[in-house]
Amino acid sequence: xxxxxxxxxxxxxxxxxxxxxxxxxxxxxxxxxxxxxxxxxxxxxxxxxxxxxxxxxxxxxxxxxxxxxxxxxxxxxxxxxxxxxxxxxxxxxxxxxxxxxxxxxxxxxxxxxxxxxxxxxxxxxxxxxxxxxxxxxxxxxxxxxxxxxxxxxxxxxxxxxxxxxxxxxxxxxxxxxxxxxxxxxxxxxxxxxxxxxxxxxxxxxxxxxxxxxxxxxxxxxxxxxxxxxxxxxxxxxxxxxxxxxxxxxxxxxxxxxxxxxxxxxxxxxxxxxxxxxxxxxxxxxxxxxxxxxxxxxxxxxxxxxxxxxxxxxxxxxxxxxxxxxxxxxxxxxxxxxxxxxxxxxxxxxxxxxxxxxxxxxxxxxxxxxxxxxxxxxxxxxxxxxxxxxxxxxxxxxxxxxxxxxxxxxxxxxxxxxxxxxxxxxxxxxxxxxxxxxxxxxxxxxxxxxxxxxxxxxxxxxxxxxxxxxxxxxxxxxxxxxxxxxxxxxxxxxxxxxxxxx
Length: 501
Hints:
Layout: H1 3-9, E1 15-19, E2 29-32, E3 44-49, E4 61-65, E5 78-82, H2 87-117, H3 120-131, E6 134-139, E7 144-147, H4 156-164, H5 169-176, E8 190-192, E9 200-209, E10 212-224, H6 233-253, H7 263-272, H8 281-284, E11 293-300, H9 307-320, E12 325-329, E13 332-338, H10 339-344, H11 346-356, E14 358-362, H12 372-388, E15 395-397, H13 402-408, H14 422-434, H15 438-447, H16 452-459, H17 463-477, H18 484-500
Parallel strand pairs: 2-3, 3-4, 4-5, 14-15
Antiparallel strand pairs: 1-5, 6-7, 6-10, 8-9, 9-10, 11-13, 11-14, 12-13
């Protein structure tokens, strides 16, 4: 607010005289004068008695109580002279007025910024700079939706939560004892969540959308909990205003905050973030699962994929396989898929991936829900290896990548080459010198299960040509491609070539 705006909000009857030059100055805070003070900030409105000031030394913004006629002021000094007995009453009134204006202006500023930029992270950065403290937005499942970077989070535990993008099950169990999400929807006040596990003071404002708890905005201060310092009430009130703005933004732009979650979704998510199945046995007993299951992980495929694409994929997946259960984890779709239904509709699932701009990984089959997180890791690994190997398929089966996964766990990748059969090096060299394709022909033959007919069909050559190539491979490579042990080593060698070159 400006000096003129502040003065005009108060009763004119409290003033002897108001002096304001043409240049109207902005006020960001107020303060009481100290006796003999000679240095003043340009944006603080100072309150005191004119006798406290030295001759010709005035704050650029001031309110002075005086019982005598107002004195002459230097140029560019904005001043209001109070009648006797009005100093502290006016100070308190201006304090309340300025605080109310700052709160309301922060709320409007954040909404205006989002309207202009549509960037929730930028909104949090602005709010954090105004509050002077780091902010973290967390949904009801304790996933980190957004956080500040320019005002860094100092708390080590929350640094770890931000790095992995979600809170672990053990952490959630501890936090739930604070009752953040269990209070009545009508209670929207700031909650002190400072705890013994962290040295820093922390506060949160809960987010309710249409009466339902949706998450919370956490403020991590730079104040240590044992310092004896307290966070100003104005800061906590501004946190509440930031929470109000974030709530409005989420209710209009993030429909997933509004959707309810089934018991299956809660179970899958808890398993993914580290819950032991034995701790969830009471929940599991109430649920029913297909006798054989797959875990599926789906993610956007390159720049074409979007968050909306993941939701389209999820909707189509559940329509195709009705007994599928889905949650979201680390930006991916995490699904529990009935094996029999998948095997009947694998081709349609591939089409769904293409339409939604997503790629999906599928685990080995399993029959115990306690294995879901392990099998989901397989599905995710299949996707990761597919990218590394520059494969183009939309549906990646872990069964096709299990050997690569095994080789990838070899600690010293540089030693893998020593296990490769020398025949492959000789075949590649021969191909380069003679413009041949023995290296590829051997691989196709091995992956065809030793079938000359199938290998010839895949190479688009006559069966007799394939027989000739195998004879040439045996001569150049010095191997018998029909020996079982040799076939196994050659297959592994090809996979080592794929993985490490």
